[in-house]
Each structure stands twice: as C-alpha cells, then as structure tokens.
C-alpha cells in the first residue's frame, strides 16, 4: 500500500467527518481497532528480529564492553572448566540456571540431554562434542543436567514396545539411547503415576548417560587418573530445585594374590 | 504467591541401593603390608566421609603415597566444585526464579518458543548471553561448529531436535549461528582428506565439507585465518540450504509459517551479522544447484 493512497484515504475521511460530525464516535472506534490490528501485524513481523538486535546491543553494552580484559583473552582462546550436556528445551539454559559466564562452560544441547555410547559413525556428533573439549581444551568437569517436564523423556516413556516401528523419523531413534532407563523405571516404579515415572526416568536417563560417558576411552582414562570428574544433575523448574550427584569410578592398583 | 521451599541436595543418588554404578571396591593396605580388602557399597550421604577414610588409609603406604596425594588434592577440588555449582544455582533461584515466579510457573505447564537456535557448543558463544534469550524463548541445539547434517544421512542428534521443534513445538524461526575462531571449522579446513577417520572431530566436521570446497574455490589465495572466517560464514549458508532439504521444513517455509535466518557472531570485534533466507529467490538457485538467496542482511555493532 503506497503512502499516497493512505494520505488520500485520511484526507477523504477528514472531509467526511467535518461534514457529518455525528459520525465522530463511530469513526473513532473503527480507527482505534484498525490501529491496534496494524500494530499487532507490525510487531509480529519485526518482533523476532528486533528482539535479537536489542538483546545483542544489551549484551554488548552491559557485558562485552564492561569486561574488555576477559573478552580480549577469550578472543584468543578458551579454557572452560566445565563441559555441560543439557536439554535443548527452551526453559533450561545452563548459563541461566548456573550463571555460567562466557568462557566458563562448553555446552552441548540436544533432545533430553543424552550421551550415546561410543560409535564413530552413528554418533560422531556427540563424540566430537566430547573429544574436542576433553582432549584439546582439557576440561576438568562433565555435568549432565536432566530436567522436569522433559518432552524427550516423556516420549521415551510412551514407547510401549521397543521393537515396534517408529512413528517419528528421527526422534524415537535418538531417544531410545536411554531405553535402559525406561525399562528399569517401568519395572521398578510400575505402581507410580505416569508423571512420577517420567520424573524418575529423567534422573535415571542421566545415569545411563553418565555410564555411556565411560565408553569413550579418552574420558575413562582421565576419570581413572582423577583429572576429570563426572556429575549428574536434575533441574526441577516446577519446584525450583536442583539435585546434583557424582559418578564414582576408579580402578585400584592391582595386588598379587599369590 | 505460594512459597517454594529451597531445596538443594548434594550427592543425592536417587537409587542409592541399586544404582548401576554405585559400587566401590577399595583395597586398603595395613602397616604390615598384610592385605585387607574392604568392599564398600557407599550410600550417597557417606560419600564424603568415605573419601576421607580412603585418603587416611592409603596415605600410610609408601608406594602409593604419590598417588594418594594426587587423589587427596583432586577430591578437595571436587568438593569445591560441588559448592561452586550449589552457589550458582542458589544465586539463580534468588535473583531470577523467585523474581519471575509467575513466568516460570507458566513455563512449567508448556513451552512455546518462537525460535529454534542452532549454535556452536563453544564456551564463548552462548546464545542466551549474546542475544539475551530468556527461558521459554528459544529451543537451543548446540553442537560442534553449528552444523546441520543432510536429511538423508548423518547422526540423528540434531535431526531429532529439528523434528521436535518444527513439527511439535511449531517454532516460527530457525536461526543458525556461526562464530569467529571456530575450532570445528578450523579442523575442517586443516583436514588433509575426508577419509581421515582417526578422530571423532574429523568424522563429524566432514558434514561441512561443501562449505570447505566453496571456500577453497574462492578464497584459497587468502591467509588461512581469513579462509577460516570465510568458511565459518559459508558453513552457515550451507546449513540453511541443508535445512530446506528437510521436506517438512521446506513445506512450512513455503507456506510462510517458518523463516530461516543465519547469524554470525564475531567476538573479536563484537559484531553480529544477521540475514534471512529468501525462499522464493532460492528456489531458482536450487535448480541451478548454487546455494540459497538471502535478504534483510544487517550488521549490529
């Protein structure tokens, strides 16, 4: 719609109202409605991008420019102490919950914060996400964070039969990584409600992932030498709680029995 | 407003008696080198005390003193890490969660993010920090070098997240964010040949090989660092093109209910470049096999 026709329309309306002033109230109501509609249309389209831009400017002004030493150092290299696996869920950003500053945590996010076992072809993605921070950046801590109301875990618990054909293209293939957790919960917690079973599965799936971490030789080697620690956690945003636990794994020196 | 009890449990193992991995076997050497083997299934609440016992006992054996000292120091650091994480969470709870309790309560019922963000796992490029995403705003996938595998092949991790966010959460925007000094892109550019399957990193970043080829085609005379920067951006466009190869993504883009955007965060000079895929113009290019067309490019600085 060109500006010219808009101005013409306003002019025509103005002329009409000056002749018939009793139409004033009707016109005011309609104009207000039109204005509201146009504002909403405008904000929907621009909202997303404007939001990003204002977010970035806010970061630059309040963080980047106020910490020049830190950011100059980070521009050259990073040395995070943490490697974090978290769910891609929009409600559980680890930097929010645990206030990680830039440079502190290498963060991998996927559906249901899963770590699959070692597989160079099928799971090269996660393997790379482990190999780089551990062998190149030498992180000291791995933290796998599960959370409440996890859609991925709920989907996993809804799978009745592991052998049935999948209903989704990729999701079920991915979440069945933690099928051992589901099977255990279904057996040990069968008297609990589905929601309670899901909560237990959210935590047990973290334990399955912790175990899978040890299937990577470069992880196991460092854990045994006590250079790397592995922890699991569960963030419950309904109750506002955070449970944290550690995986203990070591081999003792061998002693001769004869 | 209902008060939510503050709860932070440390070393809480939900299945302390029957956990798959809770078993500890310790050999404790007595002063006469007689062998005493103690098997301890340590309940979570005693883990710290058991740690102290281990340090005290094994400290008496000369041959193991070195190792024991190493164990003692690291265990102390571990306790500090527990405290560190605890303080972090409590600060979040006090400063953000309790202040915005209504918002978090609504989020607990359901999430309706407008964005799917695909970003690098690099510690310097957290999208929440750099772009100010609040809880509930963005379904966020982070992997090495923010790569998107093709629809027909490759690991399922990122693809499952695409399927869930697009088909179940119905996000309206996908934003692929690349960044400066990306180690994954650097590894891709340094790779000698694609058959180098010694490492996971190589097996994964080869997903971006087309970006490397297009970079080499136009920028091989540049310094390696500039080639990498070129590849970082080419890779974003390559991922965007890949996204259109997912039928249910292309369908939604065509209908206008989903927009695809690229973003490049340069943390050396703190600028953010953003652009949007022009689907209509891209369709012509797709037939030629020459990538995607973009629009609405802007640089924020």
From TrEMBL, chain A:
<dbReference type="GO" id="GO:0015976">
    <property type="term" value="P:carbon utilization"/>
</dbReference>
<dbReference type="InterPro" id="IPR015892">
    <property type="entry name" value="Carbonic_anhydrase_CS"/>
</dbReference>
<feature type="binding site">
    <location>
        <position position="89"/>
    </location>
    <ligand>
        <name>Zn(2+)</name>
    </ligand>
</feature>
<dbReference type="InterPro" id="IPR001765">
    <property type="entry name" value="Carbonic_anhydrase"/>
</dbReference>
<feature type="binding site">
    <location>
        <position position="147"/>
    </location>
    <ligand>
        <name>Zn(2+)</name>
    </ligand>
</feature>
<dbReference type="GO" id="GO:0008270">
    <property type="term" value="F:zinc ion binding"/>
</dbReference>
<comment type="function">
    <text>Reversible hydration of carbon dioxide.</text>
</comment>
<keyword id="KW-0175">Coiled coil</keyword>
<feature type="coiled-coil region">
    <location>
        <begin position="24"/>
        <end position="51"/>
    </location>
</feature>
<feature type="binding site">
    <location>
        <position position="87"/>
    </location>
    <ligand>
        <name>Zn(2+)</name>
    </ligand>
</feature>
<dbReference type="InterPro" id="IPR045066">
    <property type="entry name" value="Beta_CA_cladeB"/>
</dbReference>
<keyword id="KW-0702">S-nitrosylation</keyword>
<dbReference type="Pfam" id="PF00484">
    <property type="entry name" value="Pro_CA"/>
</dbReference>
<feature type="binding site">
    <location>
        <position position="150"/>
    </location>
    <ligand>
        <name>Zn(2+)</name>
    </ligand>
</feature>
<protein>
    <recommendedName>
        <fullName>Carbonic anhydrase</fullName>
        <ecNumber>4.2.1.1</ecNumber>
    </recommendedName>
</protein>
<keyword id="KW-0479">Metal-binding</keyword>
<keyword id="KW-0456">Lyase</keyword>
<keyword id="KW-0862">Zinc</keyword>
<comment type="similarity">
    <text>Belongs to the beta-class carbonic anhydrase family.</text>
</comment>
<dbReference type="GO" id="GO:0004089">
    <property type="term" value="F:carbonate dehydratase activity"/>
</dbReference>
TrEMBL record, chain B:
<dbReference type="InterPro" id="IPR045066">
    <property type="entry name" value="Beta_CA_cladeB"/>
</dbReference>
<comment type="similarity">
    <text>Belongs to the beta-class carbonic anhydrase family.</text>
</comment>
<dbReference type="GO" id="GO:0008270">
    <property type="term" value="F:zinc ion binding"/>
</dbReference>
<dbReference type="InterPro" id="IPR001765">
    <property type="entry name" value="Carbonic_anhydrase"/>
</dbReference>
<protein>
    <recommendedName>
        <fullName>Carbonic anhydrase</fullName>
        <ecNumber>4.2.1.1</ecNumber>
    </recommendedName>
</protein>
<dbReference type="GO" id="GO:0015976">
    <property type="term" value="P:carbon utilization"/>
</dbReference>
<feature type="binding site">
    <location>
        <position position="179"/>
    </location>
    <ligand>
        <name>Zn(2+)</name>
    </ligand>
</feature>
<dbReference type="InterPro" id="IPR015892">
    <property type="entry name" value="Carbonic_anhydrase_CS"/>
</dbReference>
<feature type="binding site">
    <location>
        <position position="122"/>
    </location>
    <ligand>
        <name>Zn(2+)</name>
    </ligand>
</feature>
<keyword id="KW-0862">Zinc</keyword>
<dbReference type="InterPro" id="IPR036874">
    <property type="entry name" value="Carbonic_anhydrase_sf"/>
</dbReference>
<dbReference type="Pfam" id="PF00484">
    <property type="entry name" value="Pro_CA"/>
</dbReference>
<comment type="function">
    <text>Reversible hydration of carbon dioxide.</text>
</comment>
<feature type="binding site">
    <location>
        <position position="120"/>
    </location>
    <ligand>
        <name>Zn(2+)</name>
    </ligand>
</feature>
<keyword id="KW-0456">Lyase</keyword>
<feature type="binding site">
    <location>
        <position position="182"/>
    </location>
    <ligand>
        <name>Zn(2+)</name>
    </ligand>
</feature>
<keyword id="KW-0702">S-nitrosylation</keyword>
<keyword id="KW-0479">Metal-binding</keyword>
<dbReference type="GO" id="GO:0004089">
    <property type="term" value="F:carbonate dehydratase activity"/>
</dbReference>
């Amino acid at each position: 719609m060109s500006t010219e026709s808009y101005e013409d329309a306003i002019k025509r309306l103005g002329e009409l109202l000056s002749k018939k002033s009793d139409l004033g109230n009707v016109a005011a109501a309609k104009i207000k409605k039109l204005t509201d509609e146009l504002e909403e249309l405008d904000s929907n389209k621009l909202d997303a991008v404007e939001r990003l831009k204002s977010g970035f400017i806010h970061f630059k002004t309040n963080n980047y420019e106020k910490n020049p030493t830190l950011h100059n150092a980070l521009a050259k290299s990073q040395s995070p102490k943490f490697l974090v696996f978290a769910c891609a869920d929009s409600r559980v950003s680890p930097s929010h919950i645990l206030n990680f500053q830039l440079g502190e945590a290498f963060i991998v996010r996927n559906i249901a914060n899963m770590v699959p076992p070692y597989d160079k072809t099928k799971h090269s993605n996660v393997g790379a996400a482990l190999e780089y921070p551990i062998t190149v950046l030498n992180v000291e801590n791995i933290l796998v964070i599960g959370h409440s109301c996890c859609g991925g875990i709920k989907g996993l618990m809804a799978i009745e039969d592991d052998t049935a054909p999948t209903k989704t293209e990729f999701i079920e293939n991915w979440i069945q990584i933690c099928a051992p957790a589901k099977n255990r919960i279904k057996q040990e917690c069968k008297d609990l409600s589905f929601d309670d079973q899901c909560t237990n599965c959210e935590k047990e799936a973290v334990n399955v992932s912790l175990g899978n971490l040890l299937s990577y030789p470069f992880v196991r080697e460092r854990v045994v030498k006590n250079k790397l620690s592995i922890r699991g956690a569960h963030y419950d945003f309904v109750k506002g709680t955070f449970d944290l636990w550690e995986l203990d794994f070591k081999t003792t020196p061998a002693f001769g029995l004869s | 407003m209902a008060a939510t009890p503050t709860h932070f449990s440390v070393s809480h193992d939900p299945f302390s008696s029957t956990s798959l991995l809770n078993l500890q076997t310790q050999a404790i050497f007595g002063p006469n080198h007689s062998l005493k083997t103690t098997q301890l299934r340590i309940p979570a609440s005693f883990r710290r005390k058991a740690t102290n016992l281990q340090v005290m006992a094994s400290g008496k054996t000369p041959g193991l003193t070195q190792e024991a000292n190493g164990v003692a120091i690291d265990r102390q650091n571990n306790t500090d890490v527990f405290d560190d994480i605890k303080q972090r969470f409590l600060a979040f709870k006090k400063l953000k969660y309790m202040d915005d309790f209504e918002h978090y309560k609504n989020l607990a019922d359901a999430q309706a993010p407008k964005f799917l963000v695909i970003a690098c796992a690099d510690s310097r490029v957290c999208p929440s920090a750099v772009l100010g995403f609040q809880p509930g705003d963005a379904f966020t996938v982070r992997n090495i070098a923010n790569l998107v595998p093709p629809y027909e092949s490759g690991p399922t991790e990122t693809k499952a997240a695409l399927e869930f966010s697009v088909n179940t959460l119905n996000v309206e925007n996908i934003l692929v964010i690349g960044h400066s000094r990306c180690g994954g892109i650097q590894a891709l550019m340094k790779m000698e040949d694609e058959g180098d399957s010694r490492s996971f990193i190589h097996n994964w970043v080869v997903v971006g090989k087309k970006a490397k080829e297009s970079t080499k085609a136009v920028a091989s005379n540049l310094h390696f660092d500039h080639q990498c920067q070129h590849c970082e951006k080419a890779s974003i466009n390559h991922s965007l093109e890949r996204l259109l190869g997912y039928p249910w993504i292309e369908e939604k883009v065509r209908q206008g209910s989903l927009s695809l955007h690229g973003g490049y965060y340069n943390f050396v000079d703190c600028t953010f470049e953003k652009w949007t895929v022009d689907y209509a113009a891209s369709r012509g290019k797709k037939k030629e096999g020459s990538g995607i067309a973009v629009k609405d490019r802007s640089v924020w600085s």
